Amino acid sequence: MKQINTESDEPYITDNSISSISVKSTPEIEKKFVHHVYDAIAPHFSSTRFAKWPKVADFLSSLPSGSLILDAGCGNGKYLGFNQDCFFIGCDISPSLIKICLDRGNEVLVADAVNLPYRTGFGDAAISIAVLHHLSTENRRRKAIEELVRVVKKGGLVLITVWAVEQEDRSLLNKWTPLADKYVEEWQGPGSPRATRVPSSLSLESIPESEESSLGGENVKVSNESEILGDLKEEKNVKNQQEYFVPWHLPYHRAEVGGASAHALATGLATKDDVKGAVVYNRYYHVFSEGELESLTNGISNARVVDQFFDKSNWCIILEKTS
């Protein structure tokens, strides 16, 4: 088992000229409702993440033997080592998920998607699977794509997938908690987002496997004492809504007694659902509309779109680095 040495000059660098400090600074909503949540639910989340998406598997299988593949936002590492003829290095913002990867013998490190710690042109290919929708501003999403292009060689391919607004099951959009206010660019303040309605179901059929497999489909109860949900308003037309909280139910028997879950409950970042016997965490998502992912690449002069497609309620794109 090896862990990447982040103190060495090779192959990792930090280029302060790549982006402004504001883009690299993590907004509070991501810290609380992405980073902290995944650290808290990591073992349970990992137990539900094992099936490989066919399109991702096809992409990885198509790469030449000996390719070095960078997985940015690798989660529990389910794609690391998928193609045994290639080499994989993964990174994720969650130390808890990275520990799971390390325990499985993968080459991984903790890193931010908007500031990848690899030198320019390091990898032969890169993937970002279900990551960009957790970034809360357009600039940060664009920066993450620029980073993926930067770290691959000329001619290298980049596969990106994100959750879509255009869900195959449209009823799902009424089962998540839409956020009433779109966050201002580079939002980092202490203000509380406000929700417009309570989610009525936990169903996450927009991804191949979900926590429903272990928890069933009963209705979700969300406490009005949770500060981040704010005051509940009347249901509104969510046709153009793209900002959501999507709940994750961590069963009581999987929650650490006196650990992260206890702290989250005490601070209002999680609630209890005694009916389901679980601690409820909310994960922040910006779901993508048709053409939005491609539009983020318009200003990247050294990359071109070679394929884009819709798969299992996800928008997907493949880029090639041209210079």
TrEMBL record:
Give a yes or no for keyword Methyltransferase in this entry.
yes
Check the record and name the SUPFAM superfamilies matching this protein: S-adenosyl-L-methionine-dependent methyltransferases (SSF53335)
Sorted alphabetically, which Pfam families does this protein's record hold?
Methyltransf_11 (PF08241)
Which molecular function term from Gene Ontology is one that the record holds?
A: tRNA (5-carboxymethyluridine(34)-5-O)-methyltransferase activity
Q: Which UniProt keywords apply?
A: Methyltransferase, Transferase
InterPro entries referenced in this protein's UniProt entry, alphabetically: AlkB_tRNA_MeTrf/Diox (IPR051422), Methyltransf_11 (IPR013216), SAM-dependent_MTases_sf (IPR029063)
Q: Which Gene3D superfamilies match?
A: Vaccinia Virus protein VP39
- A single cellular component GO annotation: cytoplasm
Q: Which residues form the Methyltransferase type domain?
A: 70-160
Which regions are flagged for Low complexity bias? 199-218
Question: Which BP terms from GO are recorded?
Answer: tRNA methylation; tRNA wobble uridine modification
| Top-rank lineage group of the source organism | Eukaryota
Residue ranges of the region described as Disordered? 189-219
Q: What is this protein called?
A: Alkylated DNA repair protein alkb 8-like
Annotated source species: Trifolium pratense (Red clover)
